[in-house]
Amino acid sequence: IHQRELVRPHDPMILFPGTLQGRHIRESGEKGATLVEVQGHYPIQAQHLPLDRVRWHILELDMEGLETFNDLLERVVGEMEPLVNPEVLTVVRLLLTGRCPWQGQLVARGMELEQELRVQTLNAGGDALWLERVINQTEPLRSDAPEPWGGRATMPDPLDLVHLMVAELQEDKVALNAVFERFKPLRGLLG
What we know:
The protein is 35% helix and 28% strand. It contains five helices and nine strands; from the N terminus they run βββββαββααββαα. The chain has helices at 69-80, 103-108, 110-125, 158-171, 173-190, and strands at 5-8, 14-16, 32-39, 42-50, 54-62, 89-97, 99-100, 129-136, 139-140. Helix 1 (69-80) packs parallel to helix 3. The protein is of the alpha/beta class and 191 residues long.
């Protein structure tokens, strides 16, 4: 109900105007009311009127092809500038996705990255643009690295690793006996 939706344009018109103001990031996009002009008993025109003062926006950036931190900053500024509207405060959640050759640096320097992106956002939009949060969903780029995880470029879930090790132990009786030997002192302590 919070999203504006024209279900049927006529006979009869069915329109959900949405909410006047988005309250959080899940209610992103322009919000407002719908002015319906009626002739007799029939609507002849419906016009959306933006009334929101704070507009929420999710901006997803694919990191593939970005080679440096400066490339990222330039891309963020380029993507955010069109969002600037002096009539409303636009609040942006930035999602970084895709494979990135310097993904480890993004993780290690997360707070520094977010602060620098806030500065760039302020430079791009002044008081009309605000960076709410940066979510890093990037993956490392490992095209030239060996793939130790069963042919996968990224590490599997830890539980998958346990299943993989158990399967390998079932096939290698010598390794299985070595594991049993290592756990003998623990079994002795447990009784």
